[in-house]
Give the backbone structure.
Amino acid sequence: MAKRPLTFDSEALRTFVTGIELGSFVLAAERLGRSTSAISAQLKKLEHQAGTALVQKAGRHLVLTEKGELMLGYARRLLSLNDEAYALLMASEVGGEVRLGLQEDFGEALLPAILGQFSRSHPNVQISASVTRNEPLLSAIRQNELDLALSWQGNDTTPFSQSLGKLPLSWIAAEGFDLTPYLTQDLPLPLLVFEPFCIMRTAATAALDRAGIPWRIAFTSRSLSGIWAAASAGLGVTLRTEMGMPSTLKVIRSPLLPRVGDIGVTLHRAENRLPEAAHSLYETISDYFPQQIQVLAKA
């Protein structure tokens, strides 16, 4: 008689995935609302079920073993199916339309993950998404043309907004872009930026001015895809977060370029008390997005 396959414990799998994604099982304990000893027990349980170590110490940190890397991929898939099944069975009867606005940077991170999950658990809610820049987003919120808007945090704000965390700003260019001539021969650094007025454009030029580094605007665009295309073509350097950054580009880690700091992410709502459908999406984004920020900030 064939031996029955072992069924991995789903809570242990969730503990394992959460700890790896957050880079800390202490943070995983906070996220999952459990004690650190309970989290440790869950990890040991999964390793016992797997019959092998999944993580190992590297200095002060825990890193994946070879079998741990293998387990992580399967664990994510198992949890995804589990959560999808739960969402479908618990599908809400809430209906209506939600008008959502968001920055281009958030499109790839938000649309497939959050909105896909939300649509499955709220099949009667219709989402209208608008992708644009900060100024039009905040204007639409004030004029009640949008219910929710996810934007970068700048000097301008709206009456009903919530900070979701911060992401580091990075200098980004093509893999083969040579920065040396611009920083050693006083050649103006070619910048790839949005048309005025742009928070990151202002931050980039101000940081370079403070560092005494000459610069020139080499390319302007109305869209983020244009910025990424120009960077991939080797036309210059741009200042952005790593969110949505194409794999053809790299973060420039040079001590010769000034550090610019972080930029906040803000979720705006048109009214203090939203309709039920919009409130459900507001809570979904509020819960999910800070987790993504923590993952990206540790990348």
